[in-house]
DNA sequence: ATTGTAATTGCAACTGTTTTGCATTAAATT
DNA sequence: AATTTAATGCAAAACAGTTGCAATTACAAT
């Protein structure tokens, strides 16, 4: 796999993330693109886009993988680490621009912190 | 289901949590008790103990459910909310006695915060 | 433009995890 | 001891994600 090919399906998923401002669960993506591509293709494309630093993933409250576009990441490193918010009413999931301060724990070296916030989103509050 | 029965299997799982100081993944529990009870029984007992406020659950880094005993919870509410730590080397998972400060987000009401810390545990550091 | 190549896809089968329906067992009440 | 019904075991189903392989297709070379 020396060259990387910009196939029709890769383009579709890329374009989706270009304009989508929230995060989306992998099953919703499978559903959304079920006419355009096979579900294994989606999983493979998401893996690839994540490797390339174009999207990042995290686990939602249900344990399902969610994806959102990255800001300044590349295939070397994901610098875009932040909490995520999930609305328990409408299911909306999004990235939160907020720096997680990793607490120091005695005798341990904490390398990563994953923070998932749940509650009611702006839309659902009214 | 008016009465609640203290069966042999419920007693076994309860006793396990009485003495186990860490958190444990559901599949490890299935494995550990595979001679004593059926898989579905474990899942049902864990649901029940969680309802009763005797154990609490959270998702590990792999998205799999983990369980640990509760301190001061009951069937009305789980007051025992805290971060968890998972060692990426040995897989050990434990509760972290540390108060999560829930960040206020504009236009949203954040009700819950789930924080998972990953890194190297005391045992694995030496 | 045509051809050669290998990266990518579709498909169907498979793996791993959790849930479910139902007949059977056994804990608690009488 | 008999009765009641909560809890269990089992096997099948549901669900999410992965894999092997043949067919397709992007794209570099000609
Ligand atoms: Mn994000
Ligand atoms: Mn805990
Ligand atoms: Zn909402
Ligand atoms: Zn360790």
TrEMBL record, chains A, B:
Protein name: Transcriptional regulator
Cofactor requirements of the protein: Zn(2+); Mn(2+); Fe(2+)
InterPro entries membership: FUR, WH-like_DNA-bd_sf, WH_DNA-bd_sf
Key words of the record: Iron, Metal-binding, Zinc
Binding annotation for Zn(2+): 87, 90, 121, 124
UniProt-annotated binding residues for Fe cation: 78
Spans traversing the lipid bilayer: none
Superkingdom of source: Bacteria
SUPFAM superfamilies: Winged helix' DNA-binding domain
UniProt GO MF annotations: DNA-binding transcription factor activity; metal ion binding
CC cofactor note: Binds 1 zinc ion per subunit.
């Amino acid at each position: 796999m020396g060259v990387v090919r910009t196939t029709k399906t890769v383009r579709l998923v890329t374009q989706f993330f270009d304009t989508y401002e929230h995060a989306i669960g992998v099953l919703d993506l499978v559903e959304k693109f079920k006419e355009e591509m096979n579900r294994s293709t989606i999983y493979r494309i998401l893996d690839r886009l994540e490797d390339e630093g174009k999207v990042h993933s995290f686990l939602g409250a249900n344990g399902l993988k969610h994806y959102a576009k990255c800001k300044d990441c590349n295939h070397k490193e994901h610098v875009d680490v932040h909490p995520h918010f999930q609305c328990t009413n409408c299911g909306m999931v999004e990235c939160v621009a907020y720096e997680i301060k990793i607490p120091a724990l005695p005798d341990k070296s904490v390398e990563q912190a994953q923070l998932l916030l749940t509650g009611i989103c702006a839309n659902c509050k009214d």
